[in-house]
Amino acid sequence: MERSKKEQLVEGLEKAIDATSFSDVLEALSAAAYLKAEHLASNWQDSGTAKLYERLGTKLDALSVTVNF
Prior knowledge:
Radius of gyration: 14 Å
Largest sheet: none
Number of helices: 3
Oligomer: single chain
Mean pLDDT: 96
Strand content: under 5%
Number of strands: 0
Distance between the termini: 34 Å
Structural class: mainly alpha
Number of domains: 1
């Protein structure tokens, strides 16, 4: 039976956590959120959604500092 994309993602995240740390994965997700915000703002002029991604990036970054494992 084929695994779903979500199951594949979860497995990839688990491998990333094993290779680095949970904090590093959160930092990477934060960086991805900021990149998405920049892309939305500059390529789609969607400042509202870009702001949501910026807030998400900020929250993930703060969480990565709190979660130190």
